[in-house]
Amino acid sequence: MSQNLFKWKHFESEIILLCVRWYLKYTLSYRNLQEIMSERGVSIAHTTIMRWVDEYAPIMDKKIRKHLKPTNDSWRVDETYIKVKGKWKYLYRAVDSKGSTIDFYLSEKRDKQAAKKFFKKALGSSHNQQPRVITVDKNQAYEVAIPELIYEGTLGCRTRFRQIKYLNNIVEQDHRFIKRKVKQMLGFKNLKTAEKTICGIEAMNMIRKGQVEEIQCALSEIEFLNKIMGAAA
């Protein structure tokens, strides 16, 4: 049962989800949240909030995906950089022609295998459909990865592949949300922590874009998240 997600916790589920949601949605540090909660009479260590984000962000992402509106079949794919343990890693991201998030994938490398893993992850999400056209940047790995995926049957045989920079402005602009949030974090300590946190940031970004049918305002966002996480009153 979803209520078991918060079993044995010392704080009420609503407080835990409030801290997790605020951290993933706004440019706040863990210490910022600690101070905000303290002003409201709730004493929480910033490390506790960090553990909550690490635990619940991936769960939130998984549950939100079941409620996402369908994306369209025109994919815009690009990579941005995320610092992990002082080194740059690659965050593959895709949106459709209207800006809705298709998917994301954090990789240590920027090569054919990473590109293939990203596309397979995206196609495994129920809110996505087979792309009619895929627009990418000048990363040469796509020139090999996409034909291989078509040959393997992962991508449809009629999928068009194009490299037109100005058409990818929409995904490059979309990177801003996560770059702004990650900059506040001053980098991640390891890849696993980065993956878990980015899952939650991307999930909240999809909510912000209106990709969840049930959410019409901030209040319904809170009610929705409490419900799917088993924290509804």
UniProtKB/TrEMBL annotation:
Keywords: DNA recombination, DNA-binding, Transposition. GO terms for biological process: DNA integration; DNA recombination; transposition. GO terms for molecular function: DNA binding. The keyword Transmembrane does not apply. Residues 66-229 form the Integrase catalytic domain. SUPFAM superfamilies: Ribonuclease H-like (SSF53098). InterPro entries: DDE_dom, Integrase_cat-core, IS_Transposase, RNaseH-like_sf, RNaseH_sf, Transpos_IS6. The keyword Ribosomal protein does not apply. Involved in the transposition of the insertion sequence. This is Transposase-like protein. It comes from Marinisporobacter balticus.
